[in-house]
Amino acid sequence: MSFDLLAPHYRWLEAAVAGGVLQRARLAHLAVIERAQRVLLVGEGPGRFLAVLRERRPQLPITVLDASARMLDQARRVVPIGPTEFVQADLRSWRPPVGHWDAIVTHCVLDCFAPASLACVIAPLASAATARADWVVTDFTLPARPGWQRLRARAAHQLMYRAFRMVTRLEARHLTPPDTMLHNAGFSLSNRRHFNHGLIQADHWRRASIA
User: Fold this and answer.
1) What is the number of other CB atoms lying within 10 angstroms of the CB of residue 166?
2) Of the N and C termini of the chain, which has fewer Cβ atoms inside 10 Å?
3) Cβ proximity of 170 and 108 under 8 Å
4) For the whole prediction, is pTM greater than 0.90?
5) 25 Cβ partners below 8 Å, 6+ apart?
6) What pairs with residue 64 in β-bridges?
């Protein structure tokens, strides 16, 4: 699974396909991240969320983790100031320091993994979070109620997963909700917002004690 081929084109592709909806979803819980002391951005891509966060918190220690070297190069260009560490690593094999970050951000990352891999991704990320950490998750989703919105979302998912599998060798073939795994890791859902008629979901999860 590699997003290197998409890196130079990701911004205009996002604008063409989603307009500004994805960025609005990314920023839905920005206030939560602004109060953090150390932030881990996972799969940040070309750095659209990073740029906003860095502008609001110039001296906030931020770690940007991505498996794609080209995506990291794109993100580096948007942060001329501030303490930012860039790490190239595959989430499925990465072993982070325990209890290091009090905020974790995964925008359109968890929906890239098949169920078995998703469990192997969430566990180390949860171990990297402090006892009272915030986790912001933005992903595509399916509306709970049957109807045209759910049918539309299902068709969009099928199209997106097929396209991404061809270009990036994406391992996931369908959406796997991470809710149960996040609960098992000690996080509770604090706030959930939907965008684009339920196609996109922005969550704020919070850990109140050590899992």
Assistant:
1) 9
2) C
3) no
4) no
5) 107, 138, 193, 195, 200, 201, 202
6) 41, 86
In the beta sheet, which residues pair with residue 52? none
Using the structure block, give the residue that is written with the tokens 């995506």.
Answer: 71
C-alpha distance from residue 109 to each of 146, 169, 209 (Å): 26, 14, 25
In sequence order, what are the beta bridge partners of 32?
A: none
* Tally of CB atoms within 10 A around 73: 17
C-alpha dihedral, 163 to 165 to 170 to 174, nearest 10°: 70
- pLDDT tier at 13 (50, 70, 90 boundaries)? low
Strand partners, 139: 201
Q: In this structure, what token pair is assigned to residue 119?
A: 């469990």
User: What is the tens place of the pLDDT at every residue in 53-83?
Assistant: 999 999 999 999 998 898 899 898 888 778 9
What are the boundaries of each domain within the chain?
7-206
135 vs 52, 157, 188, CA distance in Å?
17, 24, 10
DSSP collapsed to 3 states, 63-115: EEEECCHHHHHHHHCCCCCCCEEEEECCCCCCCCCCCCEEEEEEECCHHHCCH
Contact yes or no for 64/51 (Cβ under 8 A) = no
Q: Of the CATH numbers 3.40.50.150, 1.10.8.640, 1.10.10.60, 3.10.105.10, which one belongs to the domain with range 7-206?
A: 3.40.50.150
- Please identify which residue in the block is written with the tokens 């759910």: 150
Nearest to 66 by CA among 37, 46, 83, 36: 46
